[in-house]
Amino acid sequence: MLKSIKHIIILLFLLPVSIIAKDINIDELVKQTDKDVYIFLHRTDCGYCDSMIEFTFDDETIHAMIEKDFFVIDININHNDRISYKDFVGNGREFAKHIGYNYYPSSIFIDANNSIIYGAIGYQDEHEFLITLKFIHSKAYLRTDIDKYCQTLSEKDSK
Questions:
Q1: Beta carbons of 34 and 91 less than 8 angstroms apart
Q2: Is the peptide bond prior to 16 cis by the omega test (within 30 degrees of 0)?
Q3: Which of 6, 9, 27, 59 is deepest in the core (most CB within 10 A)?
Q4: Beta strands in the chain (DSSP E)
């Protein structure tokens, strides 16, 4: 029971769009924010998705960074929400397939130009996800790829 309540609280805080909207127009949401957009693609029956919600998103540093620097769109592919993005209109599962991220969980980042700038497939623990958030927020993706970015961080840590 406590675990269920914790999931609900995290989702209410972190993923507000899915609670309110049945029509998720990504194009309009991108226009309405000055933050990078983070799309969390997941399934109801996915243990890795649940772990990311329960452990990764519950981390205080990640929680604060997401709240400050990102606009979050929650897309549960088991729900029958209508997703609009550029020339696509369909449900969450069709959207995930359309953009090439039909593995769960997936983390998709969209910039102010409404372009997908980075996507990560699979569970990310607190450490990995924090690096991803910093990679996107610092705009390092404009200069390098995530592997080189991680290598640079490792080199700085070893000095």
A1: no
A2: no
A3: 59
A4: 23-25, 36-42, 70-76, 82-85, 88-90, 106-110, 116-121
One digit per residue, the tens of pLDDT, for the chain of length 159 reads: 555 555 555 555 555 444 444 799 999 999 999 999 999 999 999 999 999 999 999 999 999 999 999 999 999 999 989 999 999 999 999 999 999 999 999 999 999 999 999 999 999 999 999 999 999 999 999 999 999 999 888 776 665
d(CA 93, CA 25): 15
Phi, psi of 112 (to 5 degrees): -65, -20
Q: Which residues of 97-109 are buried (b: 16+ CB within 10 A; e: fewer)?
A: ebbebbebbbbbb
In the block, tokens 């919600």 appear at 53
Residue type, 4: S
CA 6, CA 54: separation in Å to the nearest integer? Answer: 8
| Sheet of 106-110, strands arranged across | 70-76, 36-42, 106-110, 116-121
The vertex-31 CA angle with 140 and 103, nearest 5°, equals: 60
